[in-house]
Amino acid sequence: MSVKASNVYLKSFSCNTGSVFLARLEQRLNAFKGLTLSVPSRTFFGNDLPDHFADIQAAAQCRVCIIDGCAVMEYIHRDVLDYIARLRDMAPEVVLVLTGCAASYAVKRQAVPDGIACASDNIDDICAFIGTQLGLSASPSVDRAAVDELIADPRSGGVLVRWGCNNQCAYCVVPKVREAGRRQMDVPAERIVEALKGMSSQGIDPAMLSGVCISSWRGQIKGRKGTFDDLLDLILKETPVRIARLSLQPKDITPRTLELIQSERILRPWMIAVQHFSDRILKAMRRQYDSYKVGEIFDFFKASGLQGGVITDLIVGFPGETAEDLESLDVFLRRYAKVLARVKVSAYSDRGLTLSSKMTGQISEEEKKERSRLVAGFCARHGVPCEELTL
User: Residue 163 — very low, low, confident or very high, per pLDDT cuts 50/70/90?
Assistant: First the structure.
C-alpha cells in the first residue's frame, strides 16, 4: 500500500444540523495520538448545490474515509451512494465508514452499501472502529462530556439551535433514521448567544442557526420558556453577528417574526419551506398550516416591497395530488413571483419508513417527473428562478 497523506478523511454530505455532529466527531478523532485528519470545508445543500465529487482524489489518498451522508433528500442520497461506489473502485484499499442519516437509513432498511466496513451514527462506535483499524488509542485527557455539549462548528459557521424534530411531517424520514431526529432538544438561549459571540471573536461572520425546523424552538431564555421570536430578539440585542440562511417554517412565523427579520443583520434571502399551496395536500403532509397562513406571510412581503427575498421548496407528486392541486402552485408562483429569489421543485420520493409511504394514491415516477417539469414551467412563465430536484 502506498504511503497515505493522512490516516482519516472526513467527508460531509450533511445538512446544517449534521455540522455539529461532525464537529463533535472531529474533536473526538483528534484525541487519537498518531491520527492525522483531513477535513475539507463543509458546504451545505440548503442554498447551493456543491460539487460533491471534487475532492474524491484526496479521499482516495487516506487509510480511512468517513462519509457523513444524508438520506432525507434523495438527490443527495444518490450522490452519497455514487461517491461510495467511485471511491471503492478508485481505491479499494481505503476503509469506508458511513455515518449520519445515511448510515441509520441503510441499517434500518438492511441496505448497507457494498464496501462499507462500518455503518453507524454513534460517535463512540465510530471512534472504537477507527482506533481498531489504525491500532491507535484515544487520549484519556479528552473531555468527552464537553465534546458532547459542543453546539458550534467554526468550519461551517453553524450554531446548533435545535436538535431533533417532533413535527412528524408525513414525508419526513428524520425522526426514523437518526438519534438526532428521535429526541428533540432546544438549546438554551444563553448557550446559543455565547456560541455566537465565540464565532464573532474568531472572525466568523455571518453565522448560521442550524437544526431541524429551528423556528419551532421553544427553549429556556433567562429562566423561562421562550419562543423563537424571543431567541431571535436576544441574538440581535446581545451579539454583533449577522445571521445568514435563516430557515423558517410557515406555521411558526408570527407578525413579530416578520418584524425581527427586517433587521439588516438577518441576511437575505431567507428560506421558507412552503411545500405546497393546496390546503388538501398541506393537510395530508401534516404541515400544520394552510394556504391562508402562507398568503398572510407572503402578502406582508409583497406589501413591504420585498423583491427576491425568499427561497422556497415545493413538493410535487405527493400521494393523492390532483391537477387542481397543481394549479394552486401556479397561483402561488404568479402571485408572489417578485418576492421569490428561487424555488426548489422536488418530485416526491417514497423514502420508506414514513407515513406518506403507506398512503393510497401513490403517483408513478414518470408522472412525478412530468409534474416537476410542469411546475418548473410555471416558474419560467412567471420569471422565478427554479431548480428541479428529487426529495
Answer: confident
